[in-house]
Design a protein that fits this description.
Blueprint lengths: L13 E5 L6 E6 L3 H9 L1 H9 L3 H17 L1 H12 L3 H26 L2 E2 L6 E8 L2 E5 L7 H12 L3 E5 L5 H13 L7 E3 L7 H6 L5 E5 L2 H13 L3 E5 L4 E5 L5 H13 L9 E7 H15 L20 H16 L3 E4 L14 E4 L6 H4 L6 E7 L2 H9 L3 E2 L1 E5 L3 H8 L6 E4 L14 E2 L2 E2 L4 H5 L3 E8 L1
Parallel strand pairs: 5-6, 5-8, 6-7, 8-9, 10-11, 10-16, 11-14, 13-14, 16-17
Antiparallel strand pairs: 1-2, 3-4, 4-20, 9-19, 12-13, 15-18
Length: 466
């Protein structure tokens, strides 16, 4: 049995979803008590054996059907995502499309990634094989309710593992819809299982010998807590945590084009993304011109119903997130940052925050040192390229970073100096199934996506035959 699972039906929780644009309750969902959770865990060993015995080709076929299901139900799932999380409807549709693409990608390339690797030794034959670890617990966040799950679960499942998903309570409708999609595509119930449970159940799950690993996307605080549990129980772990991505603008950048990308990089998903451009680090000689153009674009971002295609600024996902953001902004202003736009909650229903711009931000301010999860652009001025790189790396985070210059060689040289897991020249930071994704420092451990990601939750076994 799951350790310390002595309580019965009275320990079940109720989860409430709320429309962030209005503050209205959408639905109540009954959580599982410990008896229901144990019932699901009791079947893990058989489910794992059955799923790992399915051929790789048949697993890939499930992924192709999953992609078909996503595309067939695109609008309905996008609407649900916008209702529960608050993102703009166009962004929700794009998220569904990305999920379908990740299914297609791993269906196409999984056999290549998981193929045995022959090694030339004095043995009659020697090779490395990649075998499934078992059942993986996936602890998923609210900000990309579909993409984060698919990004993690698709390669885990294709490798022959089973997955248990503990999704964020605020997007429980999305969690259940995703489970229906997986089951409808032919994944057995035991291969993909949604767990409507609270965080208090996680320690016992990670102590359970039936679970072999954990992947988490979330805050640094959550990552530390889960890392301690995973380490204590010797469970393989992958973490994608917070970010404070630098967006370095050099003096030779095309300012008009760069500002357009800057607005998209900061205000996508109302700024609620780990890989948002959190710090615009701009060389002094062009800082005033950059700020003027950026301010002009920010002032065009009007808030409203995220289901309306004309809306440009979505609400934050929860009231407490807005409160936290505003506290960070106020503390930065108290420390000397300058308001150029916004920097206040928007009165009325929902959890909207003004599209905001802070200038003269320096180390020691929350806007520099912490992750601001919301629609607040931050400008940090640097004397020159050297100080820009130094400021970019002066962070406990190391997820992504970008450099903007028409000089490709210069840009490539600088991104090699950035202390981060994903670095871009003249492009927004993004996750792409073809490339490994993850961070260093306090932004995480391990990688998702690509061949590197699918091998994270495999047993890399050496085979020697004399």
């Amino acid at each position: 049995m799951i350790p310390n699972a002595g309580a019965h039906s009275s320990d079940a929780m109720t989860f409430t979803t709320v429309n962030p644009a209005t503050g209205e309750v959408l639905q109540l969902y009954a959580g599982w008590d410990s008896d229901r959770l144990e019932s699901a865990l009791a079947g893990l060993s058989l489910a794992q054996a059955n799923w790992s015995g399915v051929s790789l080709g048949d697993r890939a076929a499930c992924l192709r059907r999953l992609a078909d299901g996503l595309r067939a139900q695109r609008d309905g799932h996008a609407c649900l995502m916008t209702l529960e999380m608050g993102k703009l409807i166009a962004e929700s549709r794009g998220e569904i499309d990305r999920c379908a693409r990740v299914c297609d990608y791993f269906a196409d390339h999984g056999a290549q990634f998981l193929a045995d690797e022959a090694i030339d030794t004095e043995a009659a034959a020697s090779y490395v094989t990649h075998e499934p670890l078992g059942t993986i617990l996936a602890i998923m966040p609210w900000n990309f309710p579909f993409w984060q799950v698919f990004r993690a679960a698709v390669p885990i499942l294709l490798a022959g593992n089973t997955v248990l998903v503990k999704h964020a309570p605020s997007v429980m409708g999305c969690a259940l819809a995703i489970e229906r999609l997986f089951h409808g595509a032919g994944f057995p119930a035991g291969a993909y299982q949604n767990l409507p449970i609270g965080v208090d159940a996680v320690p016992a799950l990670l102590a359970d010998p039936r679970i072999q690993g954990v992947t988490l996307t979330g805050s640094v605080r959550a990552g530390r807590a889960v890392a301690q549990l995973a380490g204590a129980n010797l469970k393989k772990a992958v973490f994608e945590l917070g970010g404070s991505d630098p967006f370095i603008v050099l003096e030779d950048a095309d300012l008009a084009a760069t500002v357009e990308k800057a607005v998209a990089a900061r205000f996508l998903n109302a700024g609620q993304s780990c890989i948002s451009a959190k710090r615009f680090i701009v060389v002094d000689t062009i800082a005033d011109a950059f700020v003027e153009l950026l301010l002009g674009r920010i002032e065009t971002l009007r808030h409203g119903d995220p289901q309306d295609a004309a809306t440009r600024l979505a609400p934050l996902a929860r009231a407490d997130l807005r409160d936290t953001l505003h506290g960070q902004v106020q503390a930065s202003l108290d420390a000397g940052a300058k308001v150029l736009a916004g920097c206040a909650p928007i009165a009325g229903p929902g959890y909207f925050y003004q599209a905001s711009l802070l200038d003269q931000v320096r180390p020691g301010m929350p806007a520099f040192d912490e992750e601001l999860f919301g629609p607040v652009a931050v400008v940090v001025r640097a004397r020159d390229e050297g100080e820009a790189v130094q400021l970019a790396n002066q962070s406990r985070f190391g997820l992504g970073g970008s450099v903007w210059t028409p000089n490709r060689a210069r840009g490539e040289r600088i991104v090699r100096e950035l202390q981060c897991g994903v670095a871009f020249v003249n492009a927004m930071v993004q996750s792409d199934p073809r490339l490994p994704f993850g961070g260093c420092k306090e932004s995480g451990l391990g990688r998702e996506l690509s061949r590197h990601g699918i091998l994270e939750f495999t047993n890399t076994k050496t085979v020697w035959i004399s």
